[in-house]
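Standup notes, structure subgroup. Blocker cleared on the phosphoenolpyruvate input:
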Amino acid sequence: MPIRSQASLDSSGVPGDDERVLEGVPVSPGIAIGPAYAYARDREGVERRNLNADEVDKELDRFRQALQKAERDLDKIGGIAREKLGDDHARVFEAQADMLHDPSLRNPVVEAIRAEHLSADYAVHRTLTSQRDRLLASPSEYFRDRAADLLDLEERILRHLRSGKILSAIDEDSIVTAGTLTAADVVLFSRRGIRGLALQYGGATSHVSIMARAFALPAVTGVHALDTEIGHGDTVIVDGSRGTVIVRPRPDTLAFYVQRQKRHAALVRAQRKLVPLPPETLDGHRVRLRANLEFEEELDLLAKYGAEGIGLFRTEILVLMRRRVQIAEDEQFAIYKKIAERVGEAGTTFRVLDLGGDKMLPMAHREANPFLGWRGLRVLLDKPEILLPQLRAILRASAFGPARIMLPMVTDVAEVEHFRLILDATIDQLRRDGHAVAEHVPLGIMVEVPATALLAERFAPLVDFFSVGSNDLTQYTLAVDRGNDLVARLFDELHPGVLNLIRQTINAGHRHGKPVSLCGELAGQPLATPILLGLGLDEFSLSPVYLPDVKQVIRGVAYADAQQLAAECLLAPDAATVRRLALAFLRERPGMPMERLEAG
Ligand code: PEP
Ligand code: MG
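Run returned:
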C-alpha cells in the first residue's frame, strides 16, 4: 500500500517518532488508512465590507443568483443521495433547499444589503451565524445538528458568491478530517472514494455518523485535538471499531494496522459461511439474533448478515429526516408497510417515538436534565396528536407482515396500562374504519429504567415481551451520562449492578412465559455475548455489522459453561473483574473473533 507520511520525520530523522494516538467515539466500524485531507471550510475570512449606494442592486442580484445555484447543487446532491441511499436520506437536502426559501433566512440578508449597504458575503455570514448560534445553544442534539446544516448552507452560498467550485479538490483514498461535516459533505466525499472520517464534533446519532454507517465508511467523532494534531497529508489510521485515530504512525504501528485491516477483511470473508447457520450453542441452546435498523434502505442487510427480523426499528430517524414531529399517518404507513412486507415472517419490532433526552425534542423545549425529563413514552402519553398517527400506521402495517410494538422509557405500570387502553381502542377504531389489522400485535416494553427492571415481575403480566435498553439502563443505574466525554470511562454496561438488573428482568419474563431481548449496544459486543447467553437472554438485537462476531461466539460456547460464567459475573465486585472473567473464558475457547474481543 503506497502510504507516505509527509510529516513523519522529526528533527532526529527517525520516521514516525511524532506518532499521536487520539481517542474519540467509534461511530462506524472498520479500519481505514490513508493521507489526511484536512477539509478547510470556505467561510474563513469573510470580512465586513460596505457598499456604495450604486452597488446595492447588483449585490442583491448576486445574492439571488447564489441562492439559485445553491438550490441546483442541493437538487443534484439530493438526487445522488436518493439513488444511493433512498428517499429518507434525500429529504435532508430537500429540507436544506426549503431553508433557502425561508423568509427568516432571506429577509435579514436582503435587509442588511439594502439598508446597511453590507456586502452579500458579510450579510449572509452574519445572518446565518446568529441563527446558528441560537441552535448551538440548545440542549437538544437535534437542534445542534441543524446548526451543522445551516453551516453547510452558508458555505454553499458563499462559495457561489465567490464563484467557487462545489467540491473541493479532494484526493481519492483520503481520510477526511474536519471539525464537523454535514450529511451533504459525506455524500460528496463518498462519491470521491474517500476511505474514512475523523471528526472533532458530532455524536453517534448525528447525521454525519448515520451517513458514515450507511456508506460503510469507518469513522470516529469527538476527537478533540484533531485540528492541532493532524496536518494535511499526514498518514492517519481511523479505527472506527475502537474509536481511535492514529496520526503519523510509527512503521511498526502502521504494519500492525495493515495486518489488522487484512485480518479484519479475512474475518469478514470467513464469517460469510455463518450466515445460514443458526445461533445455537455447542450443546444445542438456540437464541435469536435480530437487527437494529433505522432506515428502510438497510433492509438488505438482514439477509446479508442472517438476522431473524428486526428487534428494534428506531422510528425517531423519520422525525430527524423530515425535521418535523408530526408525520401524517399515511406517510408513516407507507414506510412501515414496506418494512413489514419485506421483513416478512421473522417480524419487525417498531419502537414508538423515543423523543427527548438527546434525541430531537419535539418542541423547542428546554430542560435542565433532559434524560430525566420529558422523554419517550412520557411525551407520547401527553401528546396523542404525535402518538395516534404513528400507532395507527404501525397497526395498519401489521396486516402486511408480523409487527410488534415496543414502548421506550417506561417507568410505571400505570403507563403501560394507559397505553394498552389506547392500543385496544385504536385497533377497534381502525377495524370500524375498515382497515385490516393483524389478529395479534404483541406489545413489549423497553427495560431501561432501573425501577422497571427491579419491578419486572409486576410488568411481566401486562406485556408480551421485554427488551432491555442497556444504553439507558447503564446510564440510569450508574448515574453516568451516556453522552458525556468526561465520564465516559465510568460508562460500563458490564458493571455487575447492570448485569444483576438484566438478570432480574430475564427471570421475571421467564416466570411469566415472556421472551426477553436486549437491544442496546451491549448486544453487539462479543465480550458480553457469553454472559448475556448465560443469563438466559432469548434474543439479541444489534447493528447487523456486528452480528457475525456474536454468532461466532454463540456457536463456539456451551450454554452450561456460559451459565457458570454469568453466575460468577453477577457476584463480581466491579466491571473490570467481569471483563477479565469474560475475556479469560473466551480465550480458552477455539475459534473466537479475538480481533473484536480485544477491541471490546
Ligand atoms: C437503549 O437505551 O439501550 C436503546 C436501545 O435505546 P436508545 O439507544 O435508542 O436510547
Ligand atoms: Mg434507550
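Discussed briefly. Confidence is low (pLDDT under 50) at residues 1-14, 164-168.
Next: hand off to the docking folks.
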